[in-house]
Amino acid sequence: MDRVKTGITGLDEMLGGGFLRETANLIEGAPGTGKTTLGMQFIYNGIIQENEPGLIITFEEFPKQYYHDAAAFGWNFQELEKKGLLKVVMTSPEVSRLDVESVGGMIEGYVDQMGARRVVIDSMSHFSRLTQDPVELRSLEFNFINALKRERLTCLLTRESPVLLGEAYDDSSIGFVVDSYLILRYVEIESAIRKALLVLKMRGSDHAKDIRQYDITAQGFEVQSKFEGQEGILSGNPRRMAASFVEAFVKR
Amino acid sequence: MASNEDDFTARLMDDMDPVLLDFVKTKVNSFIKWDLVRFFHENPNTADTVENIAKYAGRNVTAVEPELEELVKDEIMRKSQLGDTFIYSLVTDESMRQLVDRFILACEDRHFRVKAVYHIIRGMR
């Protein structure tokens, strides 16, 4: 199978070698969990390591902010733009939807001119402002994602989770539309906040099922070891296994 | 007397790169246009509706729209249509983009900014 490597330490291994080419891959997490960093790194590594030009479509954060944030990791996005290997495009869901549906639109033009192979959409949460109807929203998201796939792009879509700690109630159906679904969570362990990553779904491929720790370092997103001796990680407030064992069997 | 003082000030303020002086006098001749040009210089691949651009600029849409239209007329901005929606973006013409870059770079100098502000206010009279 043709894999699109993220180039992120530990993540490609969790994904069985990378995302499948020309698929839509959702990264969901609370503010500050590193969705945008992961997306920027996916694009940067694609350009530098795989010679695959990329696009970042932003619906909220100004491109200027991306240039600044990328520079903090040593990634010179403005230089890559000058070389025609990257475009950080600011637009809105309403415009981008119309654009991809039209022939000869802006995104199609960038794909043709730059030979873009990867795209980050930051974030899909903004599509919810197009309609209140969940059925229509699913249809809009489905059409948009299909249009990106039609351009033969491998897509990384971010989505905001409103819950900082604990299990998030989610009434969105975008998880059904995408090919893979990654969750980023804050976890409280021994009075410290750590970050957890889970590959919840990956259509057409095996993937790691365990929950891994990760961190945002000076080099970017780094996936580390899995959580040892803990359970209930996604609750945001995990317990040691021994305590749960006692609770389940001894205290009865 | 006041007229002579005005002339003297005008001569001082005209001491600018003639290309940039013309750019300020004829194209970026309002503070909203200045804001818009700076925004598109910093975020050069922005393409959006006037409503969203006004939001990005933190301005009222009714104030931004005529200014954007003038920037389109002056070939700094481009206006395209998708269905019933009009989209504004910076022109791709390299010489115009370089002129915008030059203007923004020059604005880093306080003396230049003071002169540019003078010409904009004078043009508004």
Number of helices of chain B: 7
Q: How many strand elements of chain A?
A: 13
Quaternary structure annotation? heterodimer
Helical residue percent of chain B?
55-70%
Mean pLDDT over the residues of chain A: 89
The CATH topology of chain B is given as: Arc Repressor Mutant, subunit A
By CATH reckoning, the class of chain A would read: Alpha Beta
Largest sheet of chain A: 9 strands, mixed
Q: Tell me the strand order in the biggest sheet of chain A.
A: 5-4-6-7-3-8-9-10-11
CATH architecture of chain A: 3-Layer(aba) Sandwich
Number of self-contained structural domains of chain A = 1
Proportion of residues in extended strands of chain A:
25-35%
Q: What would the CATH topology of chain A be?
A: Rossmann fold
CATH class identity of chain B: Mainly Alpha
- How do the strands line up in the largest sheet of chain B? 1-3-2
CATH architecture of chain B: Orthogonal Bundle
Element-level helix/strand string of chain B:
HHHEHHEEHH
